[in-house]
Design goal:
- The protein is of the alpha/beta class.
- 33% of the residues lie in helices and 14% in strands.
- It is built from seven helices and seven strands, in the order ααααβαβββαβαββ.
- A seven-stranded mixed sheet has the order 3-2-1-4-5-7-6.
- The longest helix has 33 residues.
- 30% of the residues are buried.
- It binds S-adenosylmethionine.
- S-adenosylmethionine binds next to helix 5.
């Protein structure tokens, strides 16, 4: 994986020393370990509660899958609750946006949407949560390999593994007005796979917003050069993560995308 380790982790355990007894842990390490285990247990309990809410809603007939028409969804959880419930899994290259950035992005995206807009958040669950928490659109969907996100809104979750780029429900062929994507790995092969899916699910004049590291900008000419995905223009968005120091930016395929994100 090319994304560097979060800053907080690399420094938190480096001062551990042996206390003399082979079984005794340094108290500061023990404290860290206990707080980590408590955090994980709380995260798990919140997740189970969220899942249980959806099961209860389904049993009560309030949550009908595959029905986009005219139905109000349960309110989306806040970003703070989301982050307490869905810890980052670094094996899946999960690094969540800062709340400030996610909300700024959502405000700008809502500015491009109507109630009827169909918008896909591919590999960008935090953006989906912020967007739906701000104002719910029935045509918003999150494409993700991590099935935990089904608990956010089962009807709007689309199981998606970029290693099977053609494997998605056929109803999404040419379906989306806007696609937001933050590919998990910073290389050409990942972008080729993801772009192959986007080419199939986006409308001919649809808008693509790609959020990624500036370090792979040179592959865009190969992967995103042709309509409907390109050419790409760098936007004014200042991309911020909670625990990642990478130089990220975003690019859009529409005329005037350079102004997207400007205050
Ligand atoms: C770099 S993160 C982007 C998340 C974004 N920063 C956010 O806060 O919403 C990439 C996302 O891709 C997802 N992912 C990892 N492997 C994947 C795969 N094989 N197919 C589809 N998505 C994948 C991860 O679960 C993660 O949410």
């Amino acid at each position: 994986m090319e994304i560097p380790r979060p800053r907080s982790r690399s420094s938190s355990t480096s001062s551990s020393t042996c206390s003399g007894s082979p079984l005794a842990l340094d108290p500061s390490v023990l404290e860290l370990l206990n707080s980590h285990l408590t955090e994980k247990a709380e995260e798990e309990a919140r997740f189970k509660a969220l899942e249980a809410e959806h099961v209860a809603a389904r049993l009560a007939g309030l949550d009908v899958e595959d029905d986009d028409a005219g139905r109000e969804d349960k309110p989306m959880i806040s970003l703070d609750d989301y982050k307490k419930t869905f810890g980052e899994d670094w094996q899946l290259s999960q690094f969540w946006y800062s709340n400030e950035f996610a909300d700024h992005l959502s405000t700008k995206l809502h500015g491009m949407c109507t109630r009827e807009t169909k918008i896909a958040f591919m590999c960008s669950p935090t953006a989906f949560v912020s967007f739906q928490h701000m104002k719910q659109l029935p045509g918003a969907h999150v494409f993700e390999v991590d099935s935990r996100f089904a608990a956010l809104s089962p009807r709007q979750f689309v199981p998606y593994d970029l290693d099977s780029p053609d494997d998605f429900p056929k109803k999404f062929q040419g379906f989306f007005d806007i696609v937001v994507v933050d590919p998990p790995f910073l290389n050409e092969v990942t972008n080729v796979k993801v772009s192959s899916t986007i080419r199939q699910i986006i409308k001919p004049k649809g808008k693509l917003l790609l959020i990624t590291s500036t370090s792979i900008e040179d592959i865009f000419k190969k992967v995103y050069s042709e309509p409907p995905l390109g050419p790409l223009r760098k936007t004014a968005l200042d991309v911020q993560h909670g625990q990642l120091a990478n130089d990220f930016a975003s690019w859009g395929n529409w005329d005037g995308a350079e102004e997207f994100g400007r205050d």
